[in-house]
Structures are given as structure tokens and as C-alpha cells.
Amino acid sequence: MPDRPAHGLDAVNAMDRAAFVAAFGAVYEDSPWVAEAAWEARPFADAAALRAALAGAVRTAGRERQRALILAHPDLADRKARAANLTAFSQTEQARAGLDELTGAEAEEQRALNRAYRARFGFPFIMAVRHSTKQQILQAMRERVANEPEAEFARALQEIDRIAGYRLEELVAG
């Protein structure tokens, strides 16, 4: 878990736009525009309303902005990207799932699946890995690479929403 303090809902509702974006801009991977748009929905009645506002910003953003959000996510278990550009959230989530402890054979399969997935869909494989093992992640990749492109685009957005929900649980107290 990134080293961030949890915010109470009263404090969240009292934040100006800049403070809100600073606090929640990383919830959606390198896409602070989501928090920027959700700020307009304040005050939030509860954490679920905050989450709904963020998810709504993505849902209504339009196809190109949604695609940019998907493309902002890293390939899973990409060791080159890990040091260079993984967010603190992604580093923690991937490590918890054991993706930093792949065997040589698992790492090679992961790289091959990342390449095949990206070649088929034009964006990285996205999965909320928080409660998954590395074996479950590899299996999901094997299965999802066969999906239809439109279904996988929708699935990527669903997984992003799940990831954001987990991140919000760490950031919002109560």
C-alpha cells in the first residue's frame, strides 16, 4: 500500500479542486482528469458516492479518453516498466500478487501473453490483481486474450473500476 494518509469524508468534501486532485489523482492510473471531473460532484454523502462520481467521470468521458485511461496502465509484471514508470499503487498491487517473484518460465509466459494481448487489442491487459495469485493472473490472461475486442475494452474498464475501488478503500477513512 502506498504511504498515504486516509482522508475522512468531511476533509474530502472541504478540499479545493487542487487538493482533491492531489489526493485522488492517482486512483485512476496517471489520469488525474478523472478526479478533476469528479470534484464537481461534491459534496459526497459517503465513500460510495465518491467512488460513483469517479466511476461516472470515466463512464461519461467518451471512447478516446477511456482508451487513453486504459493505455495509461502498465503491462503486468514488466520488470523494465517497474522501475521506470509504475505508480506506487501499481508497484504495491503487483508485488502483493507475486508478480515480482515469477520464475523464469512464468516471466517468459507473462511477457508472451502481454505481447499477444497488446497485439490483439492495442492496449495492455488489465486486471485488479489484489486478491489474485500469479497463477490466477496467468490463467486469466490465457483466457481473455481470446475475447472479442469490444468485450475486452469493456472488461478493461470494469477492471480499472475495481482497481480504483481498492485504492479508494486505502485513501478514504470510514
From TrEMBL:
It comes from Azospirillum thermophilum. Keywords: Decarboxylase, Lyase, Purine metabolism. Its EC number is 4.1.1.97. GO terms for biological process: allantoin metabolic process; purine nucleobase metabolic process; urate catabolic process. Transmembrane segments: none annotated. GO terms for molecular function: 2-oxo-4-hydroxy-4-carboxy-5-ureidoimidazoline decarboxylase activity. Gene3D superfamilies: Oxo-4-hydroxy-4-carboxy-5-ureidoimidazoline decarboxylase. The gene is uraD. It catalyses: 5-hydroxy-2-oxo-4-ureido-2,5-dihydro-1H-imidazole-5-carboxylate + H(+) = (S)-allantoin + CO2. InterPro entries: OHCU_decarboxylase, OHCU_decarboxylase-1, OHCU_decarboxylase_sf. This is 2-oxo-4-hydroxy-4-carboxy-5-ureidoimidazoline decarboxylase. It is an enzyme of class 4 (lyase). It comes from the Bacteria. Residues 13-169 form the Oxo-4-hydroxy-4-carboxy-5-ureidoimidazoline decarboxylase domain.
